[in-house]
Amino acid sequence: MPLRITENIHNWLFSVMPEGVASLVEMTLIAVVYLTIFAVAGLFLVLLERRVAAWFQLRIGPNRVGPQGLLQTMADAIKLLTKELTGTEKADKFLYNLAPYFVIISALMALAVIPFSAEFHAFDINIGIFFLIAISSIGVIGILLGGWSSNNKYALIGAMRSGVQTISYELSVGLSLLTMVVITGSLQLSEIIEVQKSGWLILQGHIPAAIAFMVFMISGTAETNRAPFDMVEAESELGAGFHTEYSGMKFAYFFLAEFINMFIISAIAATVFFGGWLSPFGITESIPELGVFWFLLKTMALVFLMMWFRWTFPRLRVDQLLTLEWKYLLPINLVNLVLMALLVWLNLTLRL
Amino acid sequence: MSYFSDIYKGIKTLLTGMSVTGKYFVTSRKGAITQQYPDNRDTLQMFERFRGEVIMPHTDDNEHRCTGCQKCEIACPNGTIEIIWDRGIDEATGKKKKKIDQFVYHLSMCTMCGLCIDVCPHDAIKWGQNFENSVYDRSTLTRVLNKPGSTLMQGVED
């Protein structure tokens, strides 16, 4: 069905307009759809985080606005829209206003590459994984710009910590994904899912894949600047970190982008390790429409795992953070990569 | 070799921590400590040691245990308690005796330190559970704790 609808719109657009205009309109429509997903998913994830956090802390959480508090984050977003946009004196106005867009645009671009289902995949390039890693590094520029241009010492310290953290953990994210690429032999995300029709990669690659998954989840959590790696906005030390001076909707952009980044990291993990939109053991192979459901189920399970981390572990110190990356994750990752290469070379991977 | 045992210990302790919070997550529905206050106003029970306000319990015969010794007034660091006292004839012995006329309690000045309750030799005053103390006129926060016409309970001073 989804394919039919998009096909119909496509044909209709090309029948009423000249080709160049029609493709432009089509791109705009897709962008609007993805922006909607961005906003809705962001708001929903914020609500989920608050509910989950409440349950971890034996509280109830937001339950007043709408049934079970479902409209709480909508109300918050409307409140943020009506708030005044403040700024500091002597702030670099241009960069200060530019920074939130860097963050959300990089998150949106990463969202475009993610395969929600076999058909629901906006941009299936042959360097998908590489593109994702590259794009997720651009987000940190927004954070650095925001922190620096705010003309506030807390914001600056937060931004610099973010730089240190993201640059370090980028390596682990990249290497753990590279470990899986050794099995798939392709960087294209649709191809990676195709390979998993004979068993999810975490089963195919067994021990090294499990290690790669753990490393990916740890470094992914660090890359999204979430607790226990939230040095960037360590509330008890830095006020609100790099977005101390932002208010209203500009703050909301940072906030939404943080949650979308969490969604993206979980989506990558679900795609690369758990078969993306494939159903477990192919139980619903005959109904391809359920692909989105399976994909979201797996992603949400991993999002929950990240929330579980957040509400369990205490924040790391900067030196502990760097020790974890450079002395533990990176060497383990390198050894793991060699192990996986050996496994593939000796044909020891498990296939159904 | 401590490198590998460190990794093992690290992962093990992290999983222990996650299992603890996981248990709380699963059981949170039953053990939620949040009070949905205005909704459960009728059933809300404050905990035993809650310090809401100072009260003076009276029996059914309108008797209290305050002898008017003024120890609480002396103990109070910010003048919250004022005891207006009088001398009356004790019926049993026929002697002149001190008794309270009005036990004035200024809730607006009270910091809930509890020194008056600690110092009271006859347990005449106690902590009350009421916490809905907002009023439109602050003069209503000055209260007389002993009820009109109340008398000292027999045998408190023995």
From TrEMBL, chain B:
<protein>
    <submittedName>
        <fullName>4Fe-4S dicluster domain-containing protein</fullName>
    </submittedName>
</protein>
<dbReference type="InterPro" id="IPR010226">
    <property type="entry name" value="NADH_quinone_OxRdtase_chainI"/>
</dbReference>
<feature type="domain" description="4Fe-4S ferredoxin-type">
    <location>
        <begin position="55"/>
        <end position="86"/>
    </location>
</feature>
<dbReference type="GO" id="GO:0016651">
    <property type="term" value="F:oxidoreductase activity, acting on NAD(P)H"/>
</dbReference>
<keyword id="KW-0830">Ubiquinone</keyword>
<keyword id="KW-0479">Metal-binding</keyword>
<dbReference type="InterPro" id="IPR017900">
    <property type="entry name" value="4Fe4S_Fe_S_CS"/>
</dbReference>
<dbReference type="GO" id="GO:0051539">
    <property type="term" value="F:4 iron, 4 sulfur cluster binding"/>
</dbReference>
<keyword id="KW-0472">Membrane</keyword>
<keyword id="KW-0874">Quinone</keyword>
<feature type="domain" description="4Fe-4S ferredoxin-type">
    <location>
        <begin position="101"/>
        <end position="130"/>
    </location>
</feature>
<dbReference type="Pfam" id="PF12838">
    <property type="entry name" value="Fer4_7"/>
</dbReference>
<dbReference type="GO" id="GO:0046872">
    <property type="term" value="F:metal ion binding"/>
</dbReference>
<keyword id="KW-1003">Cell membrane</keyword>
<dbReference type="InterPro" id="IPR017896">
    <property type="entry name" value="4Fe4S_Fe-S-bd"/>
</dbReference>
<keyword id="KW-0408">Iron</keyword>
<dbReference type="GO" id="GO:0016020">
    <property type="term" value="C:membrane"/>
</dbReference>
<keyword id="KW-0520">NAD</keyword>
<keyword id="KW-0411">Iron-sulfur</keyword>
<keyword id="KW-0677">Repeat</keyword>
<keyword id="KW-0004">4Fe-4S</keyword>
<keyword id="KW-1278">Translocase</keyword>
<dbReference type="GO" id="GO:0048038">
    <property type="term" value="F:quinone binding"/>
</dbReference>
